Amino acid sequence: MNEYFVMNTEIAVVGAGHAGVEAALAGARLGCRTLLFTISNDAVANMPCNPSIGGTGKGQLVYEIDALGGEMGRAADKVTLQDRMLNSSKGAAVHSKRVQADRRLYQEIMKKTVEHTAGLSLIQAEIKEIRKETKGFTLVTMLGACYHADAVVVSTGTYLDSRIIVGEYTCRSGPDGMHAAIGLTDSFLKMGIKMLRFKTGTPPRIDARSIDFSVLERQDGERVSTPYSVMTDQKELDARPKLPCYVAYTNEKTHEIIRANISRSPLYSGEIKGVGPRYCPSIEDKVVRFPDKTRHQLFVEPMGDGSGEMYLQGFSSSMPADVQLEMLHSLVGFERGDDAERLCDRIRLHRLNAVICNFGI
Ligand SMILES: Cc1cc2nc3c(=O)[nH]c(=O)nc-3n(C[C@H](O)[C@H](O)[C@H](O)COP(=O)(O)OP(=O)(O)OC[C@H]3O[C@@H](n4cnc5c(N)ncnc54)[C@H](O)[C@@H]3O)c2cc1C
């Protein structure tokens, strides 16, 4: 590949996820010429898993980002579908605000903010190599374009050499059908940076029309919302639509299906060796680790205002597709219908859950 020089910049940010967007906005707002690289301009500030912002241990972070002049809290207030103050029965220090967000609207707002910030350019290009120079760094894209930066921020999230695993099926992929970032991992290794492999999972998204909400527990948010951001107009926040979430439960039948198929889970077959985050165990992990529990709580949450997709929080799994479907049909409110037509139509999985393994620094 022929390399060609494009431009100098003061700051280059590799990755336009939540971390990269904040870093790039901060750099540009401080008056530094900033370039923000992303694999896809259509996935800026994407939420590849639950479209929620904040929660235990994270709500405080959103307030801190806001106090530092960041964007996340302000944008979250504009896309709130439901908000709840978690841990409100405990002391004030652990109260944690959690917002169920409209994910597409959030992305749109963040992309517009980036595009309208002076001194900041969003570039769709995959960086395959970062070279340390005597002064600064050279960033090389897949197509050979070279950028020189005085400073580089790497915020590549879950994309580095990532793999998707659904039961016995595996492929090279980033989240949400984005392609994995190939090459940059080797570049870091050459620079002597130690890399580790991580894993995370996500549950299936369910067609709202196929769920029997009448048998689920309805869960509304706070009647009066408090904003994340000091910049938010309370009237605007009050005018946001307030959507309910729902509570469902696994049962003995779900647990039996999981136990009967546990050897097909890549988490237990040895296919996945990566370390998972503590906050997000798969449903098979919960069933194996807590054999005495007869049920586990699940939350059925909207992905957006008007979106047909519902997120099934707590049902993250690495099981093969056929097992996931069987598990899903065992839940009250998610059963198959009796007649043949409904049998095909009853549960439609918009996206099947998968475990993604990726390298991180
Ligand atoms: C399946 C799954 C489940 C998850 N579950 C949860 C959860 O329950 N709770 C939670 O808080 N988080 C969860 N996460 C993690 C979630 O991804 C992060 O919280 C959040 O997205 C991290 O933001 P980030 O900015 O670090 O990275 P990301 O959002 O991953 O963004 C990375 C950015 O880097 C860009 N990029 C990567 N490599 C290159 C390159 N070489 N060149 C140019 N651009 C590049 C990408 O295009 C993207 O814009 C989950 C992730 C996945 C994939």
CATH top level assignment of the largest domain: Alpha Beta
What integer value in Å does the Rg equal?
A: 22 Å
N→C terminal distance: 27 Å
In percent, how much strand structure appears in the residues? Answer: 25-35%
Based on Cα principal axes, name the global outline: globular
Largest sheet: 6 strands, mixed
**The CATH architecture of the largest domain:** 3-Layer(bba) Sandwich
Present as ligands are: flavin-adenine dinucleotide
| Count of discrete structural domains | 2
The name of the CATH superfamily of the largest domain reads FAD/NAD(P)-binding domain
Helix content: 10-25%
The whole-number mean of residue pLDDT values reads 90
**Low-confidence stretches at least 5 residues in length (pLDDT < 50)?**
338-350
Number of strands: 19
Helices and strands: which structural class? Answer: alpha+beta
Count of DSSP helices?
11
Q: Which H/E pattern describes the elements?
A: EHEEHHEEHEEEEEEHEEEHEHHHEEHHEE
Describe the structure.
There is one protein chain. The protein is α+β, with helices and mostly antiparallel strands. It contains eleven helices and 19 strands. Helix 7 runs antiparallel to helix 10. The chain binds flavin-adenine dinucleotide (FAD).
